[in-house]
Amino acid sequence: MFKLVSLLLCMWIAVHLQGSLTSDSVSGNSGRLDRVENQMAVLQSQQSGGSGNFLNIGSKYFYIEENQKVNWHSALNICTNMGGHLADPENQQELNSILQRLIRGRHYWLGISDLANEGLFRAQNTGRRATFLKWVYGEPNNYGNYEHCVELKSQQNRPFLMNDAPCWLNSYFICETGAPNNDE
Ligand code: 2F8
Ligand code: CA
Q: Which whole-number Å values give the CA distances from 63 to 6, 19, 83, 139, 179, in the listed order?
């Protein structure tokens, strides 16, 4: 019940904010709108009770979000609500099997960041140093000193590889679990 009320409240705020955008306040409000939309995405994932549709790929199960883009922290929350975690592929075989299902030109959050220590990329799920990192040439570069979250991206029809990007960017994302509960 509380979740439903929260969801309705967020929807009301989002509609209200959209209606109140003026040319003077666009940048400030769009940031707030982004936060509200992210919060709505997290609440919606809670509402759906969420195990989602994990696909069996190799020895694990993955969920590839292709409908909504959210920031890295919201992606983390959504994957947790679905009973999994933001994905951290462990080897090339696992990465290859995911890559086949990604849409070129899109960016997908992974559960890897150097938020705790600059330059030390850890898997969010374990807190341990990420052992498998496949960077785009020249990455990670902490561009602008504000890139701490890892995404998969493919540019100009090149293969999907990793890049450090600003955690507040809205992107698609990939969740992972060892044992899904797909019956909701
Ligand atoms: O040139 C590589 C550089 O390209 C972009 O910044 C201009 C990326 N930023 C985003 O995708 C937001 C950087 O992460 C990337 O290193
Ligand atoms: Ca980068």
A: 25, 34, 11, 26, 12
